[in-house]
Amino acid sequence: MSKHTTVSYSIGELAKEFDITTRSIRFYEDQGLILPTRKGQTRIYNQRDKVRLKLILRGKRLGFSLAETGRLFELYDADKSSATQLKTIMDLIAQKKNDLNQQLEDIQAVLIELTGLEKNCQDALNLIKK
Amino acid sequence: MSKHTTVSYSIGELAKEFDITTRSIRFYEDQGLILPTRKGQTRIYNQRDKVRLKLILRGKRLGFSLAETGRLFELYDADKSSATQLKTIMDLIAQKKNDLNQQLEDIQAVLIELTGLEKNCQDALNLIKK
DNA sequence: AGAAAAGTTTACGTTTACGTAAACTTCATG
DNA sequence: CATGAAGTTTACGTAAACGTAAACTTTTCT
Q: Could you say which residues 13-72 of protein chain A have a Cβ atom less than 7 A away from any atom in strand D?
């Protein structure tokens, strides 16, 4: 059995590591996305909290709102004993996957355009320098 | 030579087609992203405006701010006569491509996770129903 | 111990991307 | 021609995601 060596972090450490402010981290907690334990007043973050922080930031890069990311967290933690519950969850997952596939297409389209523009610029540059 | 059949649209038509409000379209104009001509007071949109609208909305889906999308438009319209100008533009393009590739990775990561979770749910469902 | 560093709460400020409303003009049409 | 639909400007409101600051309490270092 793995012993899950319980690592812990201070708010400052996490802030530095992810290059965000402590204010932001506390804000995520306010929004219910992270639930650090306390040692007196001081917040103590564990591995799970750190992973969540990482997911929050990735979500942000994808344009997810904090509420959306929160819902995704709920999906992971959700009770998987009811069939109707499960169907609901799977519907949500399917929806998210749909959205993400649309985003994938969008990104690929923009990448293609930018590559075209880049080439265009390169050509213009070559003409000038010749 | 192609005659470029000059099509034009009203603000209402575009709003309906893209399923956004007229308020939004006027806002994009405020931000300098679209420049419809006027017939009296009334805004007249042409093909180029329509394309831009499409790009604006795609940008939004990707989490671009209007300002960012505006900068991309500038890249397309930019003066390509100065070599230093061109280099600056190409740097910006490279940067954007970098960001987008990061997003691509993020999306693929989330898609993989969601697919895993989906399977997980499907398994749980099968256990219940059997 | 005394000062600096790190953490805490509370609260107001800021930006982006519109929503909503008021008050008015223009245009089509029955 | 009036009336209803569509368009216009101006302006204030709003939600999300923090930033910034004040004022205080630990913790940590020397």
A: 20-21, 23-24, 27-28, 31, 39-42, 60, 65-67
Question: Chain B interface, mutation test: which of A73, A75, A117, most B Cβ atoms within 10 Å?
Answer: A117
Judge contact between A39 and A58, C-beta under 8 A. no
Indicate the pTM of the whole model.
0.86
**What confidence tier does B6 reach under pLDDT thresholds 50, 70, 90?**
confident
pLDDT in tens, B94-125: 999 999 999 999 999 999 999 999 999 999 99
Q: What is the pLDDT of residues A59-89, one digit of tens each?
A: 998 989 999 999 999 998 888 889 999 999 9
Cα B74 to Cα B95: distance, rounded to the nearest angstrom? 15
Stated in angstroms, how far is A120 CA from C15 C1'?
A: 35
Architecture of domain B1-63: Orthogonal Bundle (1.10)
Task: Assess whether pLDDT exceeds 90 at residue A4.
Answer: no
Protein CA B91 to sugar C1' D29 (Å) = 46
- For residues A62 and B63, the answer to whether their CB atoms sit within 8 Å is yes
* Helix residue spans in chain B (DSSP H): 11-18, 22-30, 47-61, 66-77, 83-129
How distant is C1' of C23 from CA of B73, in Å?
35
Contacts of B115 (CB under 8 A, 6+ apart): A97
Mean pLDDT over all residues of chain A? 91
Residue B118 CA to residue B74 CA, distance in Å, equals 42
Are A86 and B110 within 8 A, CB to CB? no
Closest residue in chain A to residue B76, using alpha carbons only: A117
**pLDDT at position A47:** 93
